[in-house]
């Protein structure tokens, strides 16, 4: 029964059913018209035969004329019936073809509008096509339009975010330079240090954007090699342990014994772990805890960084790896982050055939970031 339902729901099944319907209607029309016309035509032909010199006809001649009349009547009725069947079949074929070509024309028209930048266009899938290939194609085109619309919106957001990030240091540059040129501000080490800080901020943003574009395009050269998970964690933790202590956070680590080596670029894997630890440091108020756990996870090694910080809402978790997304924009800007660190980390994890994911029970309930890396010798 399932096969039949699937067969009928497919476009091929509908084509076959339409062909069978056309054949059935054609044959039925042929038979009905033929049987309706044949008796009348034969009766008329028989009367004409009998009324033409009835006395002079021998039995053999009468039989021959009756047979000729029957054949003439039969072929006439068959021709008329075939004509009626052809007309009926053409009408049904036109209707069936129209039902198929109309959504195709709509898809063509809408896809052309989507290609010209009208990403809000959508294809309405009629009930008759919701489960067949036409419906699947329409759904795919709608999904493509949604993805393009989101990409365009993200592109505009990126432009706006980059503009916003550059506006502040540029305004600082402009203000100080105008003051220096007009003689209102006297040059001093403090002025030069401020200008250097703003220049460094712009340089970091440009470097981050360049690295992000290379990471998403899989153009960052990776030096994949076998490395111990403990060494990766140590490389990321050592520079930050003092900062955790100064902020009053309890940092605990647990590394499962006898973990196999992972296949990763040590520098890039350390960069990802450092980013996760720095985020935990930033968004966990004191007194708080940050727990790092390294263990096996199927055919991978998982590095989990769990904190007791501000947590994430379900909506925030869906956007956390997007460019320039900030959970708290004012706090992130105060920390000097560009908002693309997690985006870069996510792309780097994928480039090493790993994964970076996030979990959170909700706001003010902490969050848990997990980096998985493949085994060096699976």
Overview of this structure, please?
The protein is α+β, with helices and mostly antiparallel strands and 378 residues long. It folds into three domains: 2-116, no CATH class; 136-216, Helix Hairpins (Orthogonal Bundle), CATH 1.10.287.130; 225-374, Histidine kinase-like ATPase, C-terminal domain (Heat Shock Protein 90, 2-Layer Sandwich), CATH 3.30.565. The chain has helices at 2-9, 11-51, 59-115, 133-182, 189-216, 229-237, 241-247, 266-282, 314-319, 329-335, 341-351, and strands at 225-227, 249-255, 262-264, 288-297, 300-307, 355-359, 367-374. The strands form two sheets. A five-stranded mixed beta sheet has the order 2-4-5-7-6. It has a two-stranded antiparallel sheet with strand order 1-3. Helix 5 (189-216) runs parallel beside helix 11. The radius of gyration is 39 Å and the shape is elongated.
Please sum up the structure shown.
With 378 residues, this protein is α+β, with helices and mostly antiparallel strands. Helix content is 64%, strand content 12%.
Sequence-ordered SSE layout with sheet pairings:
Blueprint (H helix, E strand, L loop, with lengths): L1 H8 L1 H41 L7 H57 L17 H50 L6 H28 L8 E3 L1 H9 L3 H7 L1 E7 L6 E3 L1 H17 L5 E10 L2 E8 L6 H6 L9 H7 L5 H11 L3 E5 L7 E8 L4
Parallel strand pairs: 2-4
Antiparallel strand pairs: 1-3, 4-5, 5-7, 6-7
């Amino acid at each position: 029964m399932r096969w039949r339902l699937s067969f009928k729901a497919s476009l091929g099944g509908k084509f076959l059913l339409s062909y069978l319907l056309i054949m059935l209607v054609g044959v039925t029309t042929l038979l009905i018209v033929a049987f309706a016309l044949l008796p009348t035509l034969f009766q008329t032909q028989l009367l004409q035969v009998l009324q033409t010199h009835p006395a002079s006809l021998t039995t053999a001649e009468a039989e021959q004329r009756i047979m000729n009349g029957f054949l003439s009547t039969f072929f006439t009725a068959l021709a008329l019936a075939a004509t009626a069947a052809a007309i009926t079949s053409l009408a049904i074929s036109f209707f069936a073809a129209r039902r198929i070509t109309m959504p195709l024309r709509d898809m063509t028209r809408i896809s052309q509008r989507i290609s010209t930048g009208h990403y809000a266009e959508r294809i309405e899938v009629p009930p008759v096509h919701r489960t067949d290939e036409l419906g699947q194609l329409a759904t795919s085109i709608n999904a493509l339009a949604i993805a393009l619309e989101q990409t365009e919106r993200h592109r505009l957001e990126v432009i706006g975010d980059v503009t916003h990030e550059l506006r502040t240091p540029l305004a600082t540059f402009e203000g100080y330079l105008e003051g220096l040129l007009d003689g209102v501000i006297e040059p001093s080490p403090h002025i030069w240090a401020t200008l250097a800080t703003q220049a460094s901020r712009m340089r970091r943003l440009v470097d981050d954007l360049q690295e992000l574009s290379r990471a998403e395009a899989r153009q960052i050269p990776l030096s994949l090699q076998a490395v111990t998970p403990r060494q990766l964690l140590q490389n990321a933790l050592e520079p930050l342990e003092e900062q955790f202590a100064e902020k009053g956070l309890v940092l605990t680590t647990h590394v499962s014994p006898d973990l196999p080596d992972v296949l990763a670029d040590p520098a890039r894997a350390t960069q990802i772990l450092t980013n996760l630890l720095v985020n935990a440091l930033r968004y966990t108020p004191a007194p708080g805890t940050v727990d790092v756990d390294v263990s096996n996870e199927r055919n991978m090694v998982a590095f989990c960084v769990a904190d007791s910080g501000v947590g994430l809402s379900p909506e925030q978790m869906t956007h956390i790896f997007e460019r320039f997304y900030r959970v708290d924009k004012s706090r992130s800007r105060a920390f000097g982050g560009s908002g693309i660190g997690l985006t870069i980390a996510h792309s780097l994890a994928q480039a090493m055939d790993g994964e970076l994911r996030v979990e959170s029970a909700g706001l003010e309930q902490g969050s848990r970031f997990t980096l998985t890396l493949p085994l060096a010798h699976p």
